[in-house]
Predict the structure.
Amino acid sequence: MDDSITYVGLDAHKKTISVAVAEPGRAGAVRSLGSIANQPATVARLAKKLAAAHGKLRFCYEAGPCGYGLQRQLRALGHDCVVAAPSLIPRRPGDRVKTDRRDGVTLARSDRAGELTLVWVADPAHEAMRDLVRGREQAVAELRRHRQQLQALLLRHGRLWLGKKSWTRAHLAWVAGLTWQHPAHRILVDDQLAAITAALARRDRLTGEIEALVPDWRLAPVVTALQAMRGIALISAVTLVAAIGDITRFQTARQLMGYLGLVPSEHSSGPKRRQGGITKAGNNSARRVLVEGAWTYRSPPRLTPAMQARQIGLPKAVRDIAWTAQRRLCARYRALTALRKPNPVIATAIAREMVGFIWAIARAAQPHQG
């Protein structure tokens, strides 16, 4: 806490912002100033008025759907502004009243006390890449949904594909050539096939755009280095880096594991220690990519031609870490299998250990800049 700073809490919504001020010092008054319109001109006038009355300011607001535009505007105006993690804002257990005014007061008071957990604010270029990756994920989810709907329709009517693999050209040709007694079914199947084709084209188009933009990205060296690991190709690496941001800001690999929600939950008291499933905090996409990559360590360690191609031009330190990861994680997978652990538990454990090697590779590819 700095006794020269006035802390301003902003409970931001689409149209309005509830403003509260915490005076400097632990005993300083905390009061609500009412609401203003969530518009750049109004925010600029508020900042100017508060600066004239209080001097040095520090703004804070919760991360949410309104993004980081407010933070960037206040930073551009010369004021400090931080963004808090909503789920980690201190709440009184017995408090049953929640209003915008109270939320603003809580933010200002908690920031003054140093009790807020801040989120990493991406720069505009990083945010743009993250949005593009999310758009591709939406296309993948849409493609999966249309395929499931078509499969459910075929199964209800006993139309079973006996080939080895679904969604190949042969499979789609078989679906298109099916005959139906009622024209409504023919219409529905053709509509689903068209939706699948469109979703597939969208996914491939966005994949190509990501591949084209990555070389000009500031974090491209980390994306390239992460592909040295088994189970992490280009899209997986971009998804991880876009979701996590600057990996080197984590001082230890354990911090990154906790950030991704891959550490066990715990509820211990006294001599009893109770651990449960993983916390599942952080980004779902990053955690999903890691778990999917963990399944590749079922096989013995080896360098496939594809992996060798991805490692061309990488520093020896990065390649050594990737090979150490393969040997360690493949042996770990076999050991957990021998203990008859459930497959999902094994994959999660391997994903957690993968994070440690990912952290090491990121530090080697892009040394921490402090």
User: Anything to note?
Assistant: The chain has a mean pLDDT of 94. Residues 6-113 form a domain with the Nucleotidyltransferase; domain 5 fold (CATH 3.30.420.10). The CA atoms of residues 336 and 346 lie 6 Å apart.
